[in-house]
């Protein structure tokens, strides 16, 4: 399933709610024998997707469910938890839909802010995912998995994150965690900040760095049958049993940053844009760097909304040398209608890979939160 769809329609509904055209009050208290505040919530989302050269179409079921519970510990400390399932998946086979696959944590909150431990988005990825991936730009913009150079995490466990209270027009988040529990001294650190300037503009910035991230696992020495004498070593013929040399793990240090803005313009128009860049430095090897940008315009007229977005990865650099013809891009438009919490939508776009081949795609779906 293409990750670029995450939170897009619910985010659109939130944007529309800010115009007073749509509001959805949460009323999900469930009956339990407990003096804790317990809620059930979820998203029902299914869409039909097809693209050029794909045989037929596929059903992408991004429905998920979660539970929250909270209780005051003292006058200014509320203890809360959340556990949320993953998506049902492509073809409704349920892979990845286990409870706890998405944001799952235990936390404390008060007028001093929120402190959480568990599995959640990193601060930088939270901005990458929203508002700059909608509509359908993640296949290019999301460098956690789609770009040539990976320099930030996405949703990550073993994380401790602090989100400040709203400090006037400013708020910030800090995070640290373990990237891979099986790798020695593999830690990541992240931060983001948002500043609202008047009624029209909000500015965002984020940074994330990680040490000792394992890019490739070590390969142990092994005895094999030689299938190509030219690559097996001197004196070894095809069909001979020989000891193939092992390779060490490839470890990298990464650093990424993002700057962007959102603008709420008159007449129902809106604009957002961001630039992000980062590096992946192989320990004892080459350093790769890449930049990307995303630009999105939107227009709302009552319950109708339209978004048009463009995102691109620039040619990446390897030890300072530009690697030609490695850039790629995507353009995508989305028409939405919001009624009583339901959001039917149509998305049409095309992404162009670094080989110059363009692939048109179409998605038709329905989403609602409860």
Please provide a brief summary of the model:
The chain is mainly β and about 375 residues long. It is built from three helices and 22 strands. The protein is globular, with a radius of gyration of 23 Å.
Task: Walk me through what this model shows.
The chain is mainly beta and 370 residues long. It has a single domain (3-217, 252-369), classed as Porin (Beta Barrel). Helices cover 6% and strands 54% of the residues. Strands 1-3-4-6-7-8-9-10-11-14-15-16-17-20-21-22 form a 16-stranded antiparallel β-barrel. It is globular and about 75 Å long.
- Helix/strand order: HEEEEEEEHHEEEEEEEEEEEEEEE
Q: What is the strand arrangement across the widest sheet?
A: 1-3-4-6-7-8-9-10-11-14-15-16-17-20-21-22
CATH topology: Porin
Q: State the distance separating the first and last CA atoms.
A: 22 Å
Query: Which architecture does the CATH hierarchy give at level 2?
Result: Beta Barrel
Overall pLDDT level: 89
Helix segment tally: 3
Q: Which stretches of 5+ consecutive residues score pLDDT under 50? A: 1-6, 14-26
Strand and helix layout:
Elements: H1 8-17, E1 37-51, E2 58-61, E3 64-74, E4 77-84, E5 89-90, E6 104-110, E7 113-121, H2 123-129, H3 138-141, E8 155-163, E9 170-178, E10 187-197, E11 201-216, E12 222-225, E13 241-244, E14 250-264, E15 269-282, E16 287-301, E17 304-313, E18 317-318, E19 321-322, E20 328-337, E21 342-352, E22 358-369
Antiparallel strand pairs: 1-2, 1-3, 1-22, 2-5, 3-4, 4-6, 6-7, 7-8, 8-9, 9-10, 10-11, 11-14, 12-13, 14-15, 15-16, 16-17, 16-18, 17-20, 18-19, 20-21, 21-22
């Amino acid at each position: 399933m293409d990750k670029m769809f995450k939170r897009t329609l619910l985010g659109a509904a939130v944007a529309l709610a800010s115009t007073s055209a749509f509001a959805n009050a949460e009323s999900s208290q469930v009956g339990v024998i407990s003096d804790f505040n317990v809620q059930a919530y979820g998203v029902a989302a299914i869409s039909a997707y097809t693209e050029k050269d794909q045989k037929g179409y596929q059903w992408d079921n991004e429905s998920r469910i979660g539970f929250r519970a909270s209780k005051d510990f003292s006058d200014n400390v509320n203890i809360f938890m959340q556990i949320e399932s993953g998506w049902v998946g492509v073809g409704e086979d349920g892979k990845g839909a286990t409870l706890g696959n998405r944001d799952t944590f235990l936390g404390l909150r008060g007028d001093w802010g929120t402190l959480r431990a568990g599995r959640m988005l990193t601060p930088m990825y939270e901005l990458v995912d929203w508002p700059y991936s909608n509509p359908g730009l993640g296949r290019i913009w999301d460098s956690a998995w789609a770009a040539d150079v990976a320099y930030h995490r996405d949703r990550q466990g073993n994380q401790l994150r602090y989100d400040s209270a709203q400090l006037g027009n400013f708020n910030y988040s800090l995070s640290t965690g373990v990237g891979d529990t099986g790798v020695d001294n593999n830690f990541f650190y992240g931060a983001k900040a948002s500043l609202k300037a008047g009624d029209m503009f909000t500015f965002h910035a984020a940074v994330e760095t990680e040490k000792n991230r394992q890019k490739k696992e070590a390969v142990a020495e092994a005895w094999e049958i030689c299938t190509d004498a030219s690559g097996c070593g001197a004196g070894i013929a095809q069909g001979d049993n020989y000891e193939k040399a092992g390779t060490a793990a490839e470890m990298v240090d990464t650093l990424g940053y993002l700057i962007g803005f959102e603008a709420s313009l008159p007449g129902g128009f809106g604009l957002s844009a961001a630039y992000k860049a980062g590096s992946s430095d192989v320990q004892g090897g080459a350093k790769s760097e890449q930049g990307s940008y995303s630009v999105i315009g939107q227009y709302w007229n009552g319950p109708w909304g339209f978004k048009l977005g463009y995102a691109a990865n620039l040619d990446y650099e390897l030890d300072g040398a530009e690697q030609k013809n490695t850039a790629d891009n995507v353009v995508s438009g989305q028409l939405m209608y919001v009624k009583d919490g339901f959001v039917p939508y149509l998305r049409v776009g095309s992404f162009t890979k670094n080989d110059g081949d363009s692939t048109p795609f179409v998605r038709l779906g329905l989403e609602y939160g409860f």
